[in-house]
Specification:
220 residues, Arc Repressor Mutant, subunit A, Tetracycline Repressor, domain 2, two-stranded antiparallel sheet, 2 strands, 2% strand
């Protein structure tokens, strides 16, 4: 799980420059969003998306190679919102602890999942599609590495440190979220709480004393 430095890679697609084309792409994404929430990722097809968007399927192919490309574009859009939520919520902490970081990250993820149900359908329930599964795994590793580096710089991680710890913690969260959201777009709150307990307990075994008792945050 270690040794990968690249972030999630998406298939290249044409980026529209004209306002009309950008609007058409947005219609495709919004149509796919609705279809995914109502029926899941398996029955989705480019023809159904094009029909729901009110455009010819040939026009859809100008911007997306296939339905997987559309699903990944949707996930990318919503995961950017998740990154922003996590960063904003972490920025409110006056003291950093392993527990506070774990809880903040988990709750930020839940906030975005509840706000953007298509992300639940794609990122949490859509792992039967190989392109989605691989994208999710790479994205989780990237988030784990970023959080690990922040904690390590703050002196919260025991040395010699290993980014594998953070990657495994993210896998714990990811798997428990699959259970929490498998039958509800709101997520089972009890399982969410247990995810916080589980990942905190694991990470604290690799934390310094400061990582457990707290590191003050100094902002200029």
């Amino acid at each position: 799980m270690t040794g990968e430095n690249e972030g999630p890679r998406l298939p290249r697609r044409r980026v529209p420059q004209q306002k009309r084309s950008r609007g058409r792409v947005e219609r495709v994404l919004e149509a796919a969003d609705r279809l995914v929430v109502s029926g899941g990722v398996e029955p989705l097809s480019t023809r159904r998306i094009a029909a729901a968007a009110g455009i010819p399927v040939a026009s859809l192919y100008q911007y997306f190679a296939d339905k997987e490309a559309i699903l990944l574009a949707l996930a990318e859009r919503d995961l950017e919102a998740m990154n922003e939520q996590m960063a904003a919520d972490l920025d409110t902490l006056s003291t950093l602890t392993v527990r506070a970081m774990a809880e903040t990250v988990v709750r930020a993820m839940v906030t975005v999942y509840r706000r953007r149900p298509s992300l639940v359908m794609i990122f949490v329930r859509g792992r039967t599609i190989p392109a989605v599964r691989d994208f999710c795994r790479r994205r989780n590793r990237q988030v784990a590495r970023d959080l690990f580096e922040s904690a390590r710089r703050a002196g919260m991680v025991r040395e010699p440190s290993n980014v594998l710890w953070a990657e495994l913690a993210m896998e714990i969260i990811d798997r428990l979220f699959q259970i929490a959201f498998e039958s509800s777009l709101e997520g089972d709150p009890e399982i969410v709480e247990e995810a916080i307990v589980a990942v905190t307990s694991y990470l604290e075994t690799h934390a310094t004393t400061a990582g457990i008792t707290g590191v003050p945050v100094h902002r200029g």
